[in-house]
Amino acid sequence: MSHYWSPLVHSLTPYTPGEQPKLANLVKLNTNENPYPPSPRAVAAMQAEIGADGASLRLYPDPNADRLKQAIADHFAEFSLTTAQVFVGNGSDEVLAHAFMALLKHDKPILLPDITYSFYPVYCELHGINRVSIPLDDSFVIRVGDYARENGGIIIANPNAPTGHLLPLADIERLVASHPQSVVVIDEAYIDFGGETAIGLIDRYRNLLVIRTLSKSHSLAGLRVGYAVGDPALIEALERIKNSFNSYPLDRLAIAGATAALEDKAHLETTRQRVMSSRADLVAKLLALGFEVLPSAANFIFARHPQHDAGELMASLRERSVIVRHFRLPRIEQHLRITVGTNEQCAALTEALGKIIG
Ligand SMILES: *Cc1c(COP(=O)(O)O)cnc(C)c1O
């Protein structure tokens, strides 16, 4: 604390990212990174962008990242998007931050699930946005009908984090259709691992903003690329915030790498199938160890053991060089969130758990 700090800084409780340990040989299953490398075409595109002498880096990148916006539109060819319906940012966390300021800050409070991505409440505090938490039901499922109340906006992650639960597209449409007065933000960070995107609804619902990231399914968490798709008026609001904050959120490597990654649909398909197949195996092994596992449509699973304290399990795993995520939050303090790794990483986890529990 310091008297140099603004009152705002004094009031903040920042988000705590999952640990990025410097130790080698850890089985890292705590931040939902993809265990497989990104598209080789993305790697080649970034190398080409640097060139032999890095001369292109003298120049600022395209402030509008038009090439990347076009690649996003082309990636969803079945929905005939235009680049005016696409916004790009430095990771979807930045896109989310802009969406809170541009579209969710009104007099009425926003609605969000009581168990959700823990960055959302942080953005509310940063931007001075009131919120009302709507409890998930006893099975940790979002009940869309519970959102039928006045609001200044709604945000949910689908699949939800950290539960992994997927709402069917019909429920998303019901939510969006029943709140034409406010913006409904759907954070689809994990949708490629088993869900159906809501992007196809944006032509019919001007209040829908879908936010996505290349961090999870495209294996590019280190590149920091996220985007939003919605009606051009919503996108313009985001552009106005962005251009009042940082005109060049995406650097040249990010634009080149993300564009090539989106073009390589075969690579996406292979890696998402591998993750989904490992997920099924991991769930079966955890059930055999006595865990209760929520059904997951994401690249992580959310599980608890009725006889073992989650905090202690996490600590014991850590002693065996396996790291998973544990949230000390109401309702979920006995759960662990475990990223689906390679089959070898998953086996290291279940072997360690077998020793701890067995
Ligand atoms: C990982 C994650 C993000 C952040 O993704 P970045 O693009 O890496 O900033 C956003 N929302 C949810 C729900 C996530 O789990």
Provide a descriptive summary of the structure in words.
With about 350 residues, the protein is an alpha/beta fold. The chain has two domains: about 130 residues, Aspartate Aminotransferase, domain 1; about 220 residues, Type I PLP-dependent aspartate aminotransferase-like (Major domain) (Aspartate Aminotransferase, domain 2, 3-Layer(aba) Sandwich). It has eleven helices and twelve strands. The strands form four sheets. The protein has a five-stranded mixed sheet with strand order 2-8-7-6-5, sandwiched between helices. A three-stranded antiparallel sheet has the order 9-10-12. α2 runs antiparallel to α8 and α3 runs parallel beside α8. The longest helix is centred in the last third of the chain and has 24 residues. It starts with 6 loop residues before the first helix and ends with a helix. The mean pLDDT is about 95. The structure holds pyridoxal-5'-phosphate.
Q: Give me the number of helical elements.
A: 11
CATH A-level architecture of the largest domain: 3-Layer(aba) Sandwich
Total separate domains: 2
**Which geometry do the CA atoms define?**
globular
Q: Which range does the strand content fall in?
A: 5-15%
CATH topology of the largest domain: Aspartate Aminotransferase, domain 2
Spatial order of strands in the largest sheet: 2-8-7-6-5
- Helix content class: 25-40%
Name of the CATH class of the largest domain: Alpha Beta
Please state the average pLDDT score: 96
Q: Give the termini separation.
A: 46 Å
Number of strands: 12
The CATH superfamily of the largest domain is identified as: Type I PLP-dependent aspartate aminotransferase-like (Major domain)
Rg calculated over all Cα atoms: 21 Å
Low-confidence stretches: none
Alpha-beta content class: alpha/beta
